[in-house]
Specification:
This protein is of the alpha/beta class and 413 residues long. It folds into 3 domains: 80 residues, no CATH class; 92 residues, no CATH class; 212 residues, von Willebrand factor, type A domain (Rossmann fold). Helix content is 23%, strand content 24%. The radius of gyration is 27 Å and the shape is elongated. The chain starts with a strand and ends in an 8-residue tail after the last strand.
Length: 413
């Protein structure tokens, strides 16, 4: 159970006697719920025996479902189910019901019973990478310097969302690069965890602790290696939120002039983080000293786009005061939080789930409408996607989510 998200998801569906795939058209509707071997079908369904490593039916072609990591089937339209059962679109045998809701087959259930479905929520892993160079002591308005404003913004975001996001924090600098090792220097480093506010507060100095240079590329490379050595859970994306107030330098050349080489090194580091470690990098300029061209290059490669913008341009952020800095952090983190709720049993009839008046989906006790507030995610049959204001509420912190569906909407094995 997730203490950050209370979810009770109940499906009201057909309950048979534990499965209904037949054997080679024998007429016996039960085989313990196990699928037939693909070679037992006269015409195997498309995709039979294909891998489905995450266990989701959505990885399989219609006519099959995921069973023990392999796309399988109990039946086809021509073969497999006994009297009183029909083969559904996922290759499962399901009872045929009469108009009054009773089972017309033999040996089936006499009606509908409730079954609890276990849901999970995607949990992002967000590492703040904050510049600790000497220029972070520059005034930033509101009685704060850049360091103080970054500290306030980071801790504010973490205090609101650390129950649904695994936050971590790294501050980076160098003191004359490789001439005075180590380089880079991570004076503050907190691993990504849920409920991490107290640890971040204890480790992250509110007053500038001292620092000199800005080895951005070296720091991204070193941080990615640390994350890869002890990776966070993979149930959500892993992102680096880079907050820097100046053009990068490097460990090799701590005070370059011009900065083109260090810029290229930082771009390559963000590109490698995405390509080699599947870690996205989002860049935020604290002040206006970082060139827009470099910010754009970093933003593009940070999410896997071409550096030159030929595949489109990603968003970067420029903050000029404490409030716009906090707003930028909030936007970056909010965009990383998914509004998908995955369930462990797939939908059998998506239209019925959405349109039947007996469907009852609620967020924090408030009824939600389909498709304006929720829908079955396109291309998937085991994910409920919240949309609109319901998505905004879901992203804002801990939430209670419940759902009840009528007979036939959820596959019950």
């Amino acid at each position: 159970m997730y203490r950050w998200l209370s979810i009770v998801l109940v499906a009201v569906g057909a309950f048979g006697l534990g499965g209904c795939g037949g054997g080679n058209g024998s007429g016996n509707p039960f085989n313990g719920g196990k699928p037939l071997a693909c070679e037992e079908f006269a015409t195997p369904p498309p995709g039979c025996d294909s891998p489905c490593p995450s266990g989701s039916d959505s990885e399989c072609e219609l006519g099959t479902y995921c069973f023990n990591g392999v796309c399988s089937a109990q039946c086809t339209a021509e073969q497999g189910c006994g009297e009183g059962f029909d083969c559904n679109s996922r290759g499962r045998c399901i009872p045929i019901f009469s108009g009054t809701g009773g089972n017309t087959g033999t040996g089936g259930s006499t009606g509908c019973q409730s079954v609890q479905v276990t849901p999970t929520r995607s949990v992002p892993n967000a590492m703040f990478l904050v510049d600790q160079s000497g220029s972070m002591t520059s005034d930033f308005g509101g009685g704060q310097n850049r360091w103080e404003a970054a500290h306030s913004a980071v801790t504010s975001v973490v205090s609101q969302l650390d129950s649904i996001v695994r936050f971590g924090l790294t501050t980076y600098q160098s003191e004359n690069g490789d001439d005075n090792p180590p380089c880079p220097r991570f004076d503050t480093q907190v691993a990504m965890q849920l409920d991490n506010l107290s640890t971040i507060n204890m480790s992250y100095p509110a007053t500038f602790p001292g620092g000199e240079d800005t080895p951005t590329g070296d720091s991204i490379d070193a941080l990615v290696s640390i994350i890869q050595a002890n990776p966070p859970p993979a149930d959500g994306p892993t992102i680096i939120v880079l907050a820097t107030d100046g053009e990068p330098d490097s460990c090799e050349v701590p005070d370059p002039n011009p900065t083109a080489g260090a810029q290229a090194e930082a771009v390559a580091a963000a590109q490698n983080a995405f390509g080699n470690a599947n870690i996205q990098t989002f860049i935020l300029s604290v002040g206006t000293e970082v060139s827009n061209a470099h910010l754009q290059d970093m933003a593009n490669v940070g999410i896997g786009l071409a550096e030159d913008g030929s595949e489109g341009n990603a968003t970067f952020w420029v903050a000029t005061d404490p409030q716009s800095l906090e707003d930028a952090f909030n936007q970056i983190i909010s965009d990383s939080i998914s509004c998908d709720v995955q369930i462990d049993k797939p939908f059998d009839d998506k239209e019925k789930a959405c349109n039947d008046p007996e469907s009852d989906v609620r967020l924090n006790g408030t009824p939600l409408s389909c498709p304006s507030d929720w829908r079955v995610k396109p291309g998937a049959d085991d994910i409920i996607e919240l949309v609109g204001s319901a998505c905004d509420t879901f992203k804002s912190g801990a939430a209670t989510f419940t759902a009840v569906f009528p007979c036939g909407a959820i596959v019950v094995e």
